[in-house]
Structure formats: C-alpha cells, structure tokens
Specification:
By secondary structure, this protein is an alpha+beta fold. It has 5 helices and 5 strands. The structure holds adenosine-5'-diphosphate and magnesium ion.
Length: 153
C-alpha cells in the first residue's frame, strides 16, 4: 500500500492570486482516487493556508515573480502527501508558530490559526526549516475509500 502511483511538482510565484490556482491543482491531482467532497474540501483549505503563509510571511507580501513556492504531491493508493515549500525568511520557533492564535502579524487581519487549520483538516503535518533558508510544510491526507472499491476495478 506504500507504492507511489503518481507524482506532481510545480513552482509558482508567491502571489496571492496563485492561492486559488494552487488549491485547484492539488484537488485535481487527487481526483483519480475518487475522494469524497469533504476530503477534497479539507485538502483545498489546508493548501490555501500553507500557500497564503508563503505569500504573507515567507516573502512578506513582496509578490515578486522571483519569490517562488514549490508544491510537490505524491499520490499513494489511499493517501495524498503534499509538500509546500518556500525560500523565504523561515520560522525561528516552529513549535510556537504552530500554537493556536500565534501570529507575528496581529495587525494585519491574521488570526494565527493557519497551522491549526492545517492540522485539523489533514491527518498529519510536519513543518521544518529548509537548508539555505525557508520553510517546508508536509501534510498527509488519507482517503476513506479504496480506488478499487469505488471504480469497480
Ligand atoms: N512559510 C512561512 N514562512 C515564514 N514564517 C511563517 C510561514 N508560515 C507561517 N509562518 C509564521 O508562523 C506564524 C503562524 O502561522 P499561521 O498559524 O498560519 O497564522 P497566521 O498566518 O494567521 O499568522 C505566522 O504568523 C508566521 O510568523
Ligand atoms: Mg497563516
């Protein structure tokens, strides 16, 4: 069950308009596994939060075409692994950053709930600093139905 059945990798500039594009691409990538509407919606929400963090925090809203977000997806028979990474400022205290309501931008309509949302909508999340600077967020979501069951293969 650990066999990778598909992979996808893309890079997009850290612009806010790419948030909806990124979540639509990741949703489309896992549609072959016949996920439920709720599962797709959870994945989209989590991807939006991670991409928004790259735009707002990693590159501090510069919206430059040179500031890239990398999205890598691996699809397993019943699970999606999505990694969203940037080459931005990084996070000095990851444990603290992941606490509910913690934000370094309290004056800018940020709720501090992004990581909490990712944690609750996905089955697992790991956040790491990247060698050379930036942040790497890896999330996993298991699907309840097996592809074989729903498609009758
Ligand atoms: N990609 C990132 N690069 C740098 N800092 C980040 C990144 N993602 C999150 N952070 C830091 O973690 C904090 C918490 O993130 P989050 O839970 O999404 O709340 P919010 O985005 O509302 O501040 C942010 O305020 C920011 O300081
Ligand atoms: Mg956030």
């Amino acid at each position: 069950m650990n066999e990778i059945i598909n992979t996808m990798s893309m890079q997009i500039p850290a612009k806010s308009e790419n948030e909806s594009f990124a979540r639509a691409v990741v949703a489309a990538f896992c549609v072959g596994l016949n996920p439920t509407i709720d599962e797709v919606s959870d994945i989209k929400t989590a991807v939006s939060e991670a991409v928004t963090n790259c735009v707002v925090h990693a590159y501090q809203k510069r919206q430059s075409k040179d500031d890239l977000i990398t999205i890598e997806c691996k699809l397993f028979p019943q699970m999606l692994e999505v990694t969203i990474s940037d080459c931005g400022v990084g996070i000095s205290n990851i444990k603290q950053a992941m606490e509910p309501f913690y934000t370094t931008e309290p004056d800018n309509e940020r709720s501090g709930m992004g990581f909490t949302v990712m944690q609750s909508f996905m089955d697992s999340i790991s956040v790491n600093n990247r060698n050379g600077g930036g942040t790497v967020v890896t999330m996993r979501k298991h699907f309840t139905k097996e592809k074989a069951q729903v498609s009758g293969e």
